[in-house]
C-alpha cells in the first residue's frame, strides 16, 4: 500500500517537472511569409503550444510545447493539412527552440 | 514626365514601406485569416477588397471596383460580394503553385445613366512561386447586360535574394495587362517593386504610359 502510494506520488511529481517537447517538422510548399503566418497562427491555437518558429530557408516548422504537455503527431499532421501544406517529416528533439532559433540565425 | 512618375513611385514605396514593413497577392491568404487589399491601376482601375477565409481553400467577402475608360472617359462603379476557391495547390519541396477561381454578384452604376444594374464577376488565377521566382496569370471579368470588361494580367518576378519569414522580401516584377471592353487601347506594361514582410505587402511601379500603379495588402 505504502509502496503503491509512493510510486503514484513519484510519478505525479515527475510529470509536473516533465520537460517541454520540441517538435521539428519538414514542410513542403513553404515559400512566402503568408505561408509562415498561416502555419504559425494555426499552431499557436493549441493550448499546449509554448512557441513556434518557421524557417522558409530550411522548410522547417518548430513547435515547443509547455512543460508536461504534448501535441500528437496525428494532430500536427492534420493542422498542417488544414492550413494547406504537406508535412513530410516529424521528429522530437532534445534541442530547445531557442537553440534552434539561434542556429537558424547563425546560418544566415 | 516619365522620370518624375518613376521618382514619385519610388518615393511612395520608400515612404509606405517605412510604415508597412511588408507576400504574393492571392485571393485567399490562409485559414481563419482576413485579407484587405487596395489596388490603384492608373486612372483606369481602382479596387478595394476584403475577404475572410474560414478554410485555407475558401474565402468570402466583397469589393468595390471603379473602372474608367482611357479612351472616352466612361466610368463603371461596381460593388460586389464574392466567393474565392482554391481547387488545386501543389506543395513542392521549394515551390508552390496554385489555381484560384472566383465568382460574385453585385450592382453597377454607369456614368451618364441613373440607377444601378445587376452585375456579375468571374475570374481565375494561376501562380507559381519559389523564394526567388514568381509567375502568375490572371483574368477577371466584370459584366452586366450593359457592359463587359475583362482585365487579363500576367506577372513575372525575380527576387534579388531569398527572403525568410522575419526578413523583408523584395521582388522586381514585369507586368503585362490587357483591358477589354474599350477601357484601353492595347496592352499595358508596367515595372513594379514588391515589398513584403510578415502580414503586409506593398507593390508599386509605373506603366509604360508613365502612370502610377500600386497595391497594398494586409492580412490578419
What report would you give on this structure?
The complex is a heterodimer of chains A (108) and B (220). With 108 residues, chain A is α+β, with helices and mostly antiparallel strands. Chain A is built from four helices and four strands, in the order αβαββαβα. Chain A has one domain: Alpha-Beta Plaits. Chain A has a four-stranded antiparallel sheet with strand order 2-3-1-4, with helices on both faces. By secondary structure, chain B is mainly β. Chain B has a twelve-stranded antiparallel β-barrel with strand order 1-2-3-4-5-6-7-8-9-10-11-12. In chain B, β10 and β11 form a beta hairpin. The N terminus of chain B is likely disordered. The chains are: A alpha+beta (108), B mainly beta (220). Chains A and B meet through α2 of A and β4 of B.
Task: Record keyword descriptors for this entry.
heterodimer; A: 108 residues; alpha+beta; Alpha-Beta Plaits; 4-stranded antiparallel beta sheet; 4 helices; globular; B: 220 residues; mainly beta; Porin; 12-stranded antiparallel β-barrel; 1 helix; disordered N terminus
Helix proportion of residues of chain A, in percent? Answer: 40-55%
Given as residue ranges, the uncertain stretches of chain A (5+ residues, pLDDT < 50) are 7-17
Count of individual beta strands of chain B: 12
Largest interface: A-B, 25 and 33 residues
As for the number of domains of chain A, it is 1
Mean pLDDT of chain A: 85
Strand order of the largest sheet of chain B: 1-2-3-4-5-6-7-8-9-10-11-12
By secondary-structure content and strand pairing, the structural class of chain A works out as: alpha+beta
State the distance separating the first and last CA atoms of chain B. Answer: 38 Å
According to CATH, what is the class of chain A? Answer: Alpha Beta
CATH architecture descriptor name of chain A: 2-Layer Sandwich
- Output the CATH topology of chain B: Porin
Element order, helices and strands of chain A? HEHEEHEH
| Spatial extent as radius of gyration of chain B | 17 Å
- The helicity of chain B comes to under 10%
CATH topology assignment of chain A? Alpha-Beta Plaits
| Helix-strand string of chain B | HEEEEEEEEEEEE
Count of individual beta strands of chain A? 4
CATH class of chain B: Mainly Beta
By CATH, the architecture of chain B is named Beta Barrel
Amino acid at each position: 500500500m505504502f509502496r503503491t502510494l509512493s510510486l503514484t506520488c513519484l510519478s505525479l511529481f515527475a510529470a509536473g517537472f516533465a520537460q517541454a517537447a520540441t517538435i521539428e517538422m519538414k514542410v513542403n510548399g513553404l515559400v512566402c511569409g503568408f505561408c509562415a503566418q498561416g502555419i504559425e497562427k494555426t499552431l499557436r491555437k493549441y493550448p499546449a503550444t509554448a512557441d513556434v518558429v518557421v524557417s522558409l530557408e530550411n522548410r522547417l516548422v518548430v513547435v515547443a510545447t509547455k512543460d508536461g504537455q504534448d501535441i500528437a503527431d496525428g494532430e500536427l499532421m492534420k493542422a498542417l493539412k488544414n492550413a494547406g501544406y504537406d508535412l513530410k517529416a516529424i521528429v522530437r528533439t532534445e534541442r530547445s527552440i531557442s537553440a534552434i532559433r539561434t542556429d537558424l540565425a547563425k546560418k544566415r | 514626365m516619365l522620370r518624375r512618375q518613376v521618382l514619385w513611385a519610388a518615393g511612395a514605396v520608400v515612404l509606405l514601406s517605412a510604415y508597412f514593413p511588408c507576400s504574393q497577392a492571392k485571393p485567399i491568404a490562409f485559414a481563419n485569416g482576413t485579407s484587405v487589399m487596395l489596388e490603384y491601376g492608373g486612372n483606369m482601375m481602382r479596387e478595394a477588397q476584403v475577404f475572410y477565409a474560414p478554410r485555407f481553400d475558401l474565402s468570402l467577402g466583397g469589393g468595390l471596383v471603379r473602372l474608367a475608360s482611357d479612351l472616352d472617359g466612361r466610368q463603371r462603379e461596381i460593388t460586389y460580394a464574392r466567393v474565392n476557391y482554391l481547387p488545386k495547390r501543389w506543395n513542392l519541396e521549394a515551390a508552390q503553385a496554385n489555381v484560384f477561381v472566383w465568382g460574385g454578384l453585385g450592382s453597377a452604376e454607369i456614368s451618364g445613366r441613373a440607377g444601378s444594374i445587376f452585375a456579375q464577376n468571374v475570374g481565375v488565377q494561376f501562380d507559381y512561386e519559389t523564394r526567388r521566382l514568381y509567375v502568375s496569370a490572371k483574368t477577371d471579368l466584370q459584366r452586366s447586360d450593359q457592359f463587359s470588361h475583362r482585365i487579363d494580367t500576367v506577372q513575372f518576378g525575380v527576387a534579388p535574394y531569398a527572403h525568410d519569414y522575419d526578413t523583408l522580401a523584395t521582388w522586381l516584377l514585369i507586368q503585362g495587362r490587357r483591358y477589354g471592353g474599350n477601357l484601353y487601347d492595347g496592352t499595358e506594361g508596367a515595372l513594379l517593386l514588391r515589398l513584403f514582410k510578415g502580414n503586409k505587402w506593398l507593390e508599386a511601379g509605373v506603366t509604360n504610359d508613365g502612370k502610377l500603379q500600386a497595391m497594398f495588402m494586409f492580412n490578419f
